[in-house]
Amino acid sequence: MTGRPHRLGRVGALACAVGALTVVVAALPWLRGDDPARSVLRARLEDREIDPAALAAVRSELHLAGNPLQGAADWLIAAARGDFGTSWVAGVPVRDLLLPAAGASASLAAAASVVAVVVGVALVAPVAWALSGERRSPGRCARGVRVAGAVVAALSEVALAAALLILVGVRWRLVPVAGWFGPSYMLLPALALGVPTGGLFARLVVIAADVTAEEPWVRTWRAVGCGRITLTAGIVRRAVTVAVPQVAVLFAGLLGGAVVVEQMFAVPGLGRLSLQAALAQDLPVVQGCVLTLVLAGTAAGASGIVAQRVMLGAAGAAATLVPAAPARSLRPRRRTPLVMAAVLTAPILAGLLRDPHGVRLEQRLSVPSWAYPLGTDPVGRDVLARFGHGAVLTIGLAAAVTAAGLLVGLVVGLRGSAARVGVVDILNALPFVLIGLTIAAVLGPGLVSAAISAALVACVPIVVHTRSLAAEVRASGYHQAAVLAGAGAGWILRRHLLPAVIGPVLAYAVTRVPSTALAIAALGFLGIGAGHDTPEWGAELSVALDYLERAPTLAAAPVLGLILLGVLAGFAPAELGQRPAD
Amino acid sequence: MTLLTAAGVTKRYPAARRHPLGRRPVRTVLDAVDLAVSAGERLGIVGGSGAGKSTLLRLLLAVEAPDAGEVRFRGRLLRPAAPGRLRWFRREVQFVAQDPYAAFSPRMTVRDVVSEPLRCLRVPGDHPRRIDESLRAVQLDPALASRLPSTLSGGQRQRLALARALAPRPAVLVADEPISALDAPVRVAVLDLLREVTVATGSALVLVAHDLAAVRRACTRVVVLDQGRVVESGPVDQVFRTPRSAAARNLIEAIPRLPSGVTR
């Protein structure tokens, strides 16, 4: 008995959200709370004295407006004409920096898409084949492929990129590791970016295929003696159709989510450009990059929805086909994640008992020994100790951030249709690192910026999950009965919505902690999270990569930790996120 | 005395666009429907799928507003409003849900379910006693009060839905296809119970069904809807014996019967 959301309303809300985001981007230089001209001088001159004459000169040189409204309006008008202003640091037009970077990013994204599709097909095909069979329970092979898919999807880009860099690039010297001078330079970044995306793509399609295989037409086709290949193709086609909007967003993420990979392999793309600009507080460049990536993401998302409508027709697209939230993931043996958690916990506990700050320059970069089981870092600090303390910092911060996200998620998610579209959906589609970059550009790099951006991002899936659970309650017969029994909004919230939502959302939030920790580590790696002296996994990894040639084992601890954490994040929903059957 | 009236109610919904940029066509679901429910009366509303039964029900329950015409209860105009402003109406008109398997929160006990309208509608009086009374009225053992609805059978759940509706002692009970999710023997029992309970409590009954036989078993008067219009109305036996509209004849023919000559 609830009204259907009006389509114009949806499009309007989305347009409003994109518009609002654009205005925020346009106002970035003023959001920092001090005079942009002063920021420019600081960016250019570092620590030198700033005198009023220099400020006035900068203002007239860059045409900086006196107040934020005027400034934002000026920037938007210029941006609409394709003029993104002048870089505060390099002094050249931002457009001249953006175009080549966008080219590099686009070709990297294209190569990564190819990798993702190959990985995705390899993972989906055996599962779909098993689903088209007569047997109710899938065979061991299909099960193995499912687990492999979950693991691949859970690989963090930071960890995978570092592992590829260490093994393929440095150890075996098969392909060049840094730069952008030809197709061979593209291989490692494309793999690092494409493989996890392929895993996620496969996961979305497999979830859709599971639902599809239960549909009545599959039985009908089987009953009329349809060949197994035809049936497999039918299931895959329908599953892909259903998953298309999410897949489109995934591929948009290849463009914007590439910051880590571009930084690690020194690819001169949009991500690296925006990172360097954010670190140098060169806001016009950040503005240009963010706007480009937001527009590309929106275009990809919109084309996904259009593609689905075209593939399904109006009637099919109107029906809700598959839950958008990760409703079902595979259920491995209960032992596997527990074993992995134990493997992860043991060295963390061991490290916590040791001193992470003691500098012993005479012992720098030593190989693993009894005294230092994981060796020492470039200033002779105990790597095992830093691993343990870093875990507490990274995972503890992630837990705190997730708790904040849980509160926000419940408040926003339980509100009615107003929260249905808009900021949340935009945040959902934006690559995480991009949000971190923007916030670091405004607030300056540091653990606080990282925590704020992680909180912003962590609450999004919780909002989405809460929202879909609440929508389920609102569509239920007992909600309708309560309304007709005269229940007010407060009663329904207390007696029906909260009891139905709180348990599953809490469990879901717990499963999000590892991925939030990965995100915080990624920011730390990029230098916009924890400082380099803080024992934090991402920051540690970033230091370790500088010493790859001399001490390859240095990177092993954070890389393995991040991989384990990622795989745990991939398994966790199966263990905890399942809603108890009503 | 007339309690619930609908006068010339019309409801239109936007239909699906033919192509993405086209104008949204409008579908008239109810077309100038008149209806009156008197105290103690048992009225059946029948019609095939898409006849507008459920929409009419939503208008009668003040969940939606008609595009034209008006719905009144005891002479007062009804419009959808905040729960507090409709409390007077909800105390007098209660709803029996369609699907007894979905009608109860999986987290609320039988007692919570029956007490929900009493508490939400701020019904004065001794609630525990009323809950007991309501459960007894539908032949449910009050000892079940601490159980979860999921442990009850389909027929017991439908009784529970009825007990919940009876708890505030309404003047009108509105039931939307209350038997469509039940087995045949349970259906008859629920229909008989609906009839007996309304006779015993003196409340009126509005029973919506696509099955004329169900209405015949429980009601005295029937309104036949077809494509949003009232095509026939009158005493249920008269409509059953001498249907004047094609829609009513179709509904009667749709009632399954054993072929003559078949013996059990």
Automatic annotation (TrEMBL), chain A:
Keywords: Cell membrane, Membrane, Transmembrane, Transmembrane helix, Transport. The chain crosses the membrane at residues 12-31, 108-132, 144-167, 187-209, 247-265, 285-307, 336-353, 391-414, 426-457, 477-493, 505-531, 551-572. InterPro entries: BP-dependent_transpt_permease, MetI-like, MetI-like_sf. It is found in: Cell membrane. Signal peptide: none annotated. Pfam families: BPD_transp_1. Belongs to the binding-protein-dependent transport system permease family. This is ABC transporter permease subunit.
From TrEMBL, chain B:
Gene3D superfamilies: P-loop containing nucleotide triphosphate hydrolases. Keywords: ATP-binding, Nucleotide-binding, Transport. The keyword Nucleotide-binding applies. PROSITE patterns: ABC_TRANSPORTER_1, ABC_TRANSPORTER_2. SUPFAM superfamilies: P-loop containing nucleoside triphosphate hydrolases (SSF52540). The keyword Transport applies. Belongs to the ABC transporter superfamily. This is ATP-binding cassette domain-containing protein. It comes from Actinoplanes sandaracinus.
